Amino acid sequence: MALNPCPECGHQASDRATGCPDCGAPVGAGRESQPEPSIEAWAVSRLKAGSPRRPVVEEIVRQGDMVRSDAEALVKRLESALMPEQPAYLVKIAAGIGTAALILMLVFVVMRLLIV
Predict the structure, then answer these.
(1) Please, what is the end-to-end C-alpha distance for the chain in angstroms?
(2) What secondary structure does DSSP assign to 21-75, as a single string?
(3) Are 14 and 2 in contact (CB under 8 A)?
């Protein structure tokens, strides 16, 4: 068992440890077992954290992973997948309100024409 410095904080950690006892950064055995997160996973984490679409797209392009059009398509697809689906009854209520508003507008127009 050897002690190696942590790449993050410099604290000595065992080469068999999966994380630094001081800062928790992956070291030794844990370093190989943690693959780099995919660009999709990174983008999902940023979107879930509330980041706007534009900075996420710009960071993907800046890293050289994709061209702008592909990055925009990816982020748009991920945003739509993260959006909660509206319950059917809410959609029906909204349609009913819209229909009622349209009927009321038509009634007011007809009344206005009849009064003049």
Answers:
(1) 97
(2) TTT--B-THHHHHSPPPPHHHHHHHHHHTT--HHHHHHHHHHTTSS-HHHHHHHH
(3) yes
Q: Report pLDDT digits (tens) over 9-39.
A: 777 877 777 777 777 777 765 455 445 668 8
Q: What is the pLDDT of residues 40-87, one digit of tens each?
A: 888 888 888 888 889 989 988 888 878 889 999 999 998 888 877 667
pTM passes above 0.70: no
**Cα–Cα distance measured from residue 49 to residue 61, given in angstroms and rounded to the nearest whole number:** 20
Domain that holds residue 63: 38-83
Do 76 and 53 lie in one domain? The reply is yes
